[in-house]
C-alpha cells in the first residue's frame, strides 16, 4: 500500500470485501482498490475476478484494471475510479430530487431518453464481453457506474464487478442480485449470454419504473422463481401508467422473456438502442 495515499472507504460488504478510494503517489491519480480478505473464499476464486477483467481487451465502457497485489491476508485489485456513482443511486436521486414520476410529462420523456442513452452504452459493454467469451452474470444497476470524463467532456458508463463468474456462491447470497437474475440462473440451469440479456432487461425495468421487477427482497430463490413464472403478461402491459417509449416497452418484453429460446440476444438489443440513439 506504500504506493498509495491514505485510503477512504467507499463501501464495506457484509462479505468483508472493502472498496476504497485512494490516490496513486506516482501521478496523483485517483484509483479504487477492491480489497478481498484471503480467508473469505478459496484462493482461485479470489483471483478469478482479476483474471477475467485482465483477459478482456480494453473498452471505454468497462472499468479499466490497473493491477493487483497482496498485503497481510488481503488481495487488492486496483482499478480506475468511476466518479459518478452507481446507476442505482442515479435513479434513486432522480426519483427523490427531481420527482420524475410525478412531474411533467416532458421531463419524464427526457429522463427516458437519458436512460436509453445509458443502456446503449451498457449493451455495447456487454456485447464486447460476449464477443470475448465472457458472461458477466451479475448485471444490475449497482454494477453499472457513471463517469464524467472531464477531459473528453463526455458521460460514460463503466461496467464493474466481474466477481460472480466463480464466486457465485457468495454472489447468490446477495439478495439484491437475485432480483435481476435470469430464471435459468435462479434454477441453477446452464448459463448463457442470454442470462445477461435478461438481467439487462430487469435493470432497465428498474430504471424506468424506480422499482425492482419482482418485489420481495427477502424471497428465497425458489419463491422468486415462481414469482417470475407467474408473470403471464408481457412486462410492458403491466406498466401502462408509465407511458414508456415504444422502444423501452419492446426491449422489456423481448429481454425479460422467461424462455431462453424465445428471448432476444444482445445484438438485437444493441440494434434497437442504436436506432433509438442515432440523432
Ligand atoms: N471502480 C469503481 N469506482 C467507483 N466506485 C466503485 C468502483 N468499484 C466499485 N465501486 C463501488 O463499490 C460497490 C461494490 O463494488 P463491487 O460491485 O465491485 O463489489 P461487490 O458487489 O461486493 O462484488 P461482489 O459481487 O464480487 O461481491 C459498487 O456498487 C460501487 O458503489
Ligand atoms: Mg457489485
Automatic annotation (TrEMBL):
InterPro entries: Kinase-like_dom_sf, Prot_kinase_dom, Ser_Thr_kinase
PROSITE patterns cross-referenced by the UniProt entry: PROTEIN_KINASE_DOM (PS50011)
GO terms of molecular function: ATP binding; protein serine/threonine kinase activity
Keyword Nucleotide-binding: no
Keyword Metal-binding: no
One CC-aspect GO term: cytoplasm
Domain called Protein kinase: residue spans: 4-277
Alphabetical keyword list: Kinase, Transferase
Name recorded for this polypeptide: Kinase
Organismal lineage: Eukaryota, Metamonada, Diplomonadida, Hexamitidae, Hexamitinae
